[in-house]
Amino acid sequence: MWDLVQETVSYIKDKTNFTPEFGVILGSGLGNFIDDIQIEFSLPYAEIPNFPVSTVEGHKGALVFGTIGTKKVVAMQGRFHYYEGYSMQEVTFPVRVMKYLGVEKLIVSNASGGVNSNYKVGDIILINDHINLVPEHPLRGKNDERFGPRFVNMSEPYSKKMIALAKVLAQKNNIKVQDGIYLGLQGPTFETLAEYKMVKILGADCVGMSTVPEVIVARHMDLETFGVSVITDMGDEESIETISHDEVLQAAKNAEPKVRMLIRELILKA
């Protein structure tokens, strides 16, 4: 893994000569955040050595380099999922690459199903913790100490400092946000009503099929991490019968301007 990461990093550095401070992983329906970046380079995943290729609608599949104000950013326009058939090492490979390109802070976004009765479709949730129920762990196997320790302290997977700043920025820009615990499942099926009830019983507020593996690997390498989720459906009797991927994308698209503004402001101020 170490050699593959370094090979990819060397290729990207040769192509871009760019050292990003922030990494951003754009989830379903949030790809237009790219428009907020003064783009200097864009590398399709298919051209990057050792990179997987995103196969999900709404995930475009390019690594974009540029600036937001004075801050240097690399953004993943489309992420990889375990349910696509990739190994956890492949799913999280780009996070490893970001670290060795120079990234110090990682921002991850996603779409999720809400089980907290205080939520509604379109709400923006600042993820303050997670529950990992994805059946494969990204750190399983022999640990390479060059990346990080064997046993990772996960007491603060999502930066309290960045969450506090995001709340201040949200209030300043009249953006309603809430806190929440995200539970990660494998997918690709949406949850059954019984599974939504399980998610709530376990103490989570929302559920999705991504983010948790990337955050675990980010913390393995001591990257400060911030997560934001858009509630695109509610796990209750009223909405469960009609949920589809198209509806998820539409709900995320409706919330996108506010999420984009929040992420942009956070990058500028963090």
Care to describe what's here?
The chain has 270 residues and is of the alpha/beta class. It has one domain: Rossmann fold. Helices cover 31% and strands 25% of the residues. The chain contains six helices and nine strands, in the order αββββαββαβαβαβα. It has a five-stranded mixed β-barrel, surrounded by four helices. Helix 2 crosses helix 5 and helix 3 crosses helix 6. The radius of gyration is 17 Å and the shape is globular. The model has no long low-confidence stretch (mean pLDDT 92).
Q: Report the sheet-strand fraction.
A: 15-25%
CATH class: Alpha Beta
Calculate Rg over CA atoms. 17 Å
Low-pLDDT segments: none
Number of domains: 1
- Overall shape: it is globular
Q: What fraction, in percent, of the residue positions are helical?
A: 25-40%
Mean pLDDT: 92
What is the CATH-assigned architecture? Answer: 3-Layer(aba) Sandwich
Derived structural class = alpha/beta
Strand order of the largest sheet: 5-8-7-6-9
The CATH topology assignment is Rossmann fold
What's the total helix number? 6
- Oligomer class: single chain
Which superfamily, in CATH terms, is the homologous superfamily?
A: Nucleoside phosphorylase domain
How many E strands?
A: 9
Order of helices and strands: HEEEEHEEHEHEHEH
The major pleated sheet works out as: 5 strands, mixed, barrel
N-to-C span: 31 Å
Descriptive tags:
single chain, 270 residues, alpha/beta, 31% helix, 6 helices, Rossmann fold, five-stranded mixed beta barrel, 9 strands
